[in-house]
């Protein structure tokens, strides 16, 4: 059981002791801290509003009820989207002119996890400074709840599925006519969460008539590991081949990550979701791109081909967004299948990603696999090591940095070590008690060997 308190949100497992898991007491405490921060900066004469929404997890209704009750106890009105997606809540915050938003999802984590993802009034993740202040307020439990005459209200709102889709259809680079003309047959793995509502509805709106949905019951009992990685998508791969489909689509439980399966059941590659979408966007408008430093170098190559500049950022959506704003990027995201379209909204959004990817594919002559062949074959080996409580990670990284001191080493975000044209990136996860070890090379075996070598280095120094 675990409780991870970070500047980007509060994440933990359901069940167990207060302070050690995401218990009801902890949910109330951190929600109250968030509401307290909003009240400090708000106009005292105006009622505050917060948008909330949840994915399809078993614990979702319980967590949502606690969050809504806590906010109303602070005198804050709540717009409750109910079962929703992370990007939908993000676009709803500014559309509602709300003071902030809370997304109740543990993203790709297993069913026993849940989390509070905290947004500012722009529908973007709160800053590191605000996150730090929130943790301090929560620790002090210094809350001032509203009197009975000033309690907030809860207003359910189920209109944002359509509002999100309407916004996507109105986006200038989405080519609905071309998509509809292709008569795509698409298999969707909705992983027993809200993607089962949102993805088919989007596809139908784009003119796709032939849709097969796997794991469509929104139960929170995920049919497989919910992280959309190749090892977890065998059912989708088989279904694409069996149904003679044009392609397969997989999302994670909160629909901010996206990956595709080719018509022969092979993986398009989650790293190449952003590469393909960026290729399409850059063909329509010139500009710069951003991805985190754990993402494939293929994005840099595509960007340079289109005459733009590529910029790396530290891992984490808030860091990617900050860099995108700094360099005025026209497209960006993360290699885990996260696409950020800045003039749509500054957040990873699988739904706009689907629309742009299909627009790209629809304007090509060949299949999705022929599209994939247009991009270089780089391989990223993605690994992780679970950490024991109290592991001295700075000491481990310091020893590894010393060992590879003759090579280019970037310690802005963990350690990134370059080996000629290859690289390896070691960093502590923001969401789980693990070290992530990512390595990229022209050859899959070489990428795996680099990762294995560094994993051994880590274990020897633990």
TrEMBL record:
Source organism superkingdom: Bacteria
Keyword Magnesium carried by entry: yes
A GO biological process held by the record: carbohydrate metabolic process
GO molecular function: magnesium ion binding; phosphoglucosamine mutase activity; phosphomannomutase activity
Similarity comment: Belongs to the phosphohexose mutase family.
PANTHER family, A to Z: PHOSPHOGLUCOMUTASE (ALPHA-D-GLUCOSE-1,6-BISPHOSPHATE-DEPENDENT), PHOSPHOHEXOSE MUTASE
Name of the protein this chain belongs to: Phosphoglucosamine mutase
Organism: Niabella ginsenosidivorans
């Amino acid at each position: 059981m675990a409780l991870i308190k970070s500047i980007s949100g509060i994440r933990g497992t359901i069940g167990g002791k207060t302070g050690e898991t995401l218990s009801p007491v902890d949910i109330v405490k951190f929600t109250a801290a968030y509401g307290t921060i909003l009240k400090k900066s708000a106009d005292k004469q105006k009622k505050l509003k917060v948008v909330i929404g949840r994915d399809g997890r078993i614990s979702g209704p319980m967590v949502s009820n606690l969050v809504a009750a806590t906010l109303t106890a602070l005198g804050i009105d709540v717009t409750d989207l109910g079962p929703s997606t992370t990007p939908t809540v993000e676009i709803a915050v500014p559309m509602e002119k709300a003071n902030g938003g809370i997304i109740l999802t543990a993203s790709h984590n297993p069913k026993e996890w849940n989390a509070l993802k905290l947004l500012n009034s722009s529908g973007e993740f709160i800053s590191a400074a605000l996150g730090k202040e929130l943790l301090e307020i929560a620790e002090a439990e210094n809350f001032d709840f509203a009197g009975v005459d000033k309690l907030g209200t809860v207003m359910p709102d189920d209109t944002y599925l359509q509002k999100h889709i309407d916004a996507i259809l109105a986006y200038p680079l989405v080519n609905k006519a071309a998509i509809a003309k292709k008569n795509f047959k698409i298999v969707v793995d909705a992983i027993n969460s809200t993607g089962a509502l949102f993805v088919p509805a989007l596809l139908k709106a784009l003119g796709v008539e032939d849709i097969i949905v796997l794991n469509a019951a929104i139960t929170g009992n995920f049919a497989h590991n919910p992280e959309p990685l190749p090892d977890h998508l065998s059912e989708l791969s088989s279904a694409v081949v069996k149904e003679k489909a044009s392609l397969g689509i997989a999302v994670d439980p909160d629909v901010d990550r996206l990956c595709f399966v080719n018509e022969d059941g092979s993986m398009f590659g989650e790293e190449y979701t952003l590469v393909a979408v960026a290729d399409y966007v850059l063909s329509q408008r010139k500009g710069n791109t951003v991805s985190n430093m754990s993402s494939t170098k293929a994005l840099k190559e595509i960007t340079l081909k289109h005459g733009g500049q590529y910029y790396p950022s530290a891992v984490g959506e808030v860091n990617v967004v900050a860099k995108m704003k700094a360099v005025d990027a026209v497209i960006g995201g993360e290699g885990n299948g996260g696409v950020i379209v800045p003039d749509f909204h500054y957040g990873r959004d699988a739904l706009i990603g689907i629309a742009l990817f299909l627009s790209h594919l629809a304007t090509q002559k060949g299949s999705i696999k022929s599209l994939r062949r247009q991009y270089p074959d780089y391989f990223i080996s993605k690994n992780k090591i679970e950490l024991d409580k109290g592991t001295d990670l700075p000491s481990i990284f310091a020893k590894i940095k010393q060992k590879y001191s003759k090579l280019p080493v970037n310690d802005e975000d963990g350690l990134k070590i370059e080996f000629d044209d290859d690289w390896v990136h070691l960093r502590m996860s923001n969401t789980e008690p693990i070290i992530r070890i990512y390595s990229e090379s022209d050859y899959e075996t070489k990428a795996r060997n680099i990762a294995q070598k560094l994993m051994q280095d880590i274990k020897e120094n633990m």
